[in-house]
Predict the structure.
Amino acid sequence: MIEGLRCQAHVGVPLKERRRLQPVQIDLKLQLNLRPAGRLDRVDKTLDYAAVAQEVKALIRSRSFHLVEALAESIAKRLLQKFKPASVRVRIRKFSVPSATSVGVSITRLRQ
């Protein structure tokens, strides 16, 4: 799990909103077999959290998105392809609605 990954993203339906970077917070849950890492106490038998976080941040920097749904789908697809977990859950929150603490989406995708 990675919780509360803070990033700056170009995301929003109106062009004015997409033009400026705005904070988003991302929670990730990747499902994989942790037995080998637990038994052997070796990092090469699990996921490197820093590498996962860097991959997400690089993806966010690479383009803009109209919808947080599209951002979530892109993150899930990239993590499933690169790190090969059995599944990934992506939760994204943004802070663009003044009367709400946050708005966002949560998706779960399985490796094909």
Summary: The beta strands are 2-9, 22-31, 87-94, 103-110. Helices lie at 15-19, 35-40, 49-62, 68-83. The first helix runs from residue 15 to 19. The chain has a mean pLDDT of 95.
